Structures are given as C-alpha cells and as structure tokens.
C-alpha cells in the first residue's frame, strides 16, 4: 500500500516483509518518499545515509524479507502531487488504455508526457493515474519510456505482478519492439548492435549516455521496415533495457533518429520539421509475454500515432515523385 504520510523530517526505520522482497532499494525509496526529488534520493544513497541492517548499500541492492532500513530525516519543501490531476491530462490518459486486468495496466503513452514527476515536471503518468484512482492500493511503473517516446507502457497493480514482470525483463522474456525513423537509406538487412553504454549526469541534472568500453552491456537489433531516399523506418528490438539505448545505438551506427535533439543530426531534424515532424520519431509499438507459466500469452500493440503516420505518407509521396 502506498504511504499517505509525506512528512519525512524524522528518521524512519522500516522492516521489509515478503511483499517488497526482490525490489531494488532505490525504487523502494522512490515509491515511498513521494515528493522527494530522485536526485535527492540517490544522493543520500551515495553518501551512505540510508542503512540496511546498519550497513551501507548500493542503489541496486535488492531487498530481502527481514531487512531493516533506516532512512535519514529529509525535509521536503512541498508536496507537488497533492490535489486532483489536470483535467486535460487525465482525459488523455483515460483514453489510452490498451489492456487491463487485476494485476496489470498497459497504456499507450502519448509523446510529451513524462512517466513520473521530477526534474521540472510537476506530474507524470504514474502520479496522474494514482490521483485518478485513489482507491487503488498499488500502482507502480514496471519500466520507463523517455518523455518524448510514445507507446506501450506497463503499470503493475500488485506487488507480486511487479516482481514477476521485473524477473521477465531481467531474463529477456518480454518481447519489446519499437518503430523509429532514422537518418539515411539503410543498407542491408537486420543489424545487431552490441555497444556498451555509460550514463553520465551533468550538473544541471541532464542525463547523457555514451558508447564507452567500460559501460554496461547493451544490445539492440534493428530491422529495416520501409526505405525512403533520405530516411528509413526501422523496427528496434531491445535485448537489454538501458537509458536512451535505442537512440544512442542508432546514432552510433550513423542512423540517428528523426527529431532527436540530444543525439540526432541537426540538418536531418530541420528537414523533418519542414515536413511537419514536431517530436521524436520513436514509438514503443508492441509487447509480447506471459506473466506466468500458466498464463496466456499477452500480445499488445499500440498503433503508430497519427502525426507519425502522416509524416511517412508525405515521405512516400515525395519518393513517388522522384
């Protein structure tokens, strides 16, 4: 159950039960310390101010039943997510549900909406859903999408489902496919990109990811779907789930994604803007998995948004005139 208390000015001591076993300590703190910026949470972890069984731990430590967590006093200036969500945002999300049962909610996240609040964003998908469903005892993000990426986003409605889905993700048992428009005419067929990624956080809080030998293992499979004179629509399959992975891997092989202001090509982006593109052309198209061995296979698909379909039609018309 989500805690309603937002006064963290006193130290907390929490005993972990089986419902939180296997959860990463950073994710546990993010879900518990509502209104505390993520940067603050990671700072107290790095400094060793959060203790488990009286010892220091890393942000990726996974909780065990019986662990005792000590959280230091944290002062929060305000609770930015109180009150009802903006009506327009609530209506947009209410119309995006692709699938729902007792354990899982899957939405077609619109581009331009962050999955959670923080870093200048007052409210994201998860805070809005919680405000829309005050009776829900548990709503947690299973994974994340970049703010400008649209498509399939999973939200767990039970702790047991969250644990099961994280296990599937760790073992590559969820088939996640994306569509992206990339610069240039793709040569050849399927290409497997295996390039380690290192994440840096600038003083401003902006995250930058680079291909570096000492980075974390990352693998993306790209497959051309449709070729145009100046661009190619590709399907990208994630075999690992690193921050900005598809965007960085696409740029690394010389095919940056259209509309990518961070890793992309400025001339290519200008050309696509002239054709009407006003966002990142990256869409989480489909998910395929079985939650448990005895469960039916779920095959879910989010249609390509209208603005992206229109761009492809315009590119096709231009191709036909050549």
Provide a compact summary of the structure.
The chain has 322 residues and is of the alpha+beta class. Helix content is 24%, strand content 26%. It folds into 3 domains: 12-71, RNA-binding S4 domain (Structural Genomics Hypothetical 15.5 Kd Protein In mrcA-pckA Intergenic Region, Chain A, Roll), CATH 3.10.290.10; 87-163, Pseudouridine synthase (2-Layer Sandwich), CATH 3.30.2350; 174-321, Pseudouridine synthase.
What does this structure look like?
The chain starts with 11 loop residues before the first strand and ends with a helix. The chain is globular and about 65 Å long. The strands form 3 sheets. Strands 5, 6, 7, 8, 9, 10, 13, 14, 15 and 16 form a 10-stranded mixed beta sheet that branches. It contains 8 helices and 16 strands. It has 3 domains: 12-71, Structural Genomics Hypothetical 15.5 Kd Protein In mrcA-pckA Intergenic Region, Chain A; 87-163, 2-Layer Sandwich (Pseudouridine synthase), CATH 3.30.2350.10; 174-321, Pseudouridine synthase (2-Layer Sandwich). The protein has helices at 25-32, 38-46, 87-94, 125-132, 159-170, 245-252, 266-274, 306-321, and strands spanning 12-15, 51-52, 55-56, 68-71, 97-100, 104-109, 140-141, 150-156, 175-183, 191-194, 197-201, 207-211, 219-227, 231-238, 282-289, 298-301. Strand 13 and strand 14 (231-238) form a beta hairpin. The protein is an alpha+beta fold and 322 residues long. Residues 1-5 and 78-82 have low confidence and may be disordered.
């Amino acid at each position: 159950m989500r805690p309603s208390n937002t006064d963290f000015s006193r130290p907390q001591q929490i005993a972990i039960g089986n419902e939180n076993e296997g959860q990463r300590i950073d994710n546990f703190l993010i879900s518990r310390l509502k209104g505390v910026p993520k940067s603050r949470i990671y700072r107290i972890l790095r400094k060793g101010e959060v203790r488990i069984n009286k010892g220091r731990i890393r942000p990726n430590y996974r909780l065990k039943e019986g662990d005792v967590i000590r959280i230091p006093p944290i002062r929060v200036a305000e609770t930015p997510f109180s009150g009802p969500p903006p009506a327009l945002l609530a209506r947009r999300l209410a119309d995006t549900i692709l699938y729902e049962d007792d354990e899982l909610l899957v939405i077609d996240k619109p581009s331009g909406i962050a999955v959670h609040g923080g870093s200048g964003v007052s409210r994201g998908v998860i805070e809005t859903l919680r405000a829309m469903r005050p009776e829900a005892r548990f709503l947690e993000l299973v994974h994340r999408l970049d703010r400008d990426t649209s498509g399939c986003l999973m939200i767990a409605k039970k702790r047991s489902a969250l644990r099961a889905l994280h296990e599937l993700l760790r073992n590559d048992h969820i088939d996640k496919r994306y569509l992206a428009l990339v610069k240039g005419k793709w040569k050849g067929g399927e290409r497997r990109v295996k390039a380690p990624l290192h994440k840096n956080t600038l003083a401003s809080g902006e995250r930058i990811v680079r291909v570096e030998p000492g980075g974390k293992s990352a693998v993306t499979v790209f497959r051309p779907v449709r070729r145009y004179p100046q661009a190619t629509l590709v399907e990208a399959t994630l075999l690992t789930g690193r921050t900005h992975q598809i965007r960085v891997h696409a740029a690394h092989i010389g095919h940056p994604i259209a509309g990518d202001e961070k890793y992309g090509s400025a001339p290519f982006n200008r050309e696509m803007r002239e054709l009407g593109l006003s966002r990142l052309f990256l869409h989480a198209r489909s998910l395929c998995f079985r939650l448990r061995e005895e469960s039916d296979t779920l095959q879910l698909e989010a249609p390509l948004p209208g603005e992206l379909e229109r761009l492809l039609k315009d590119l096709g018309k231009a191709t036909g005139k050549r």
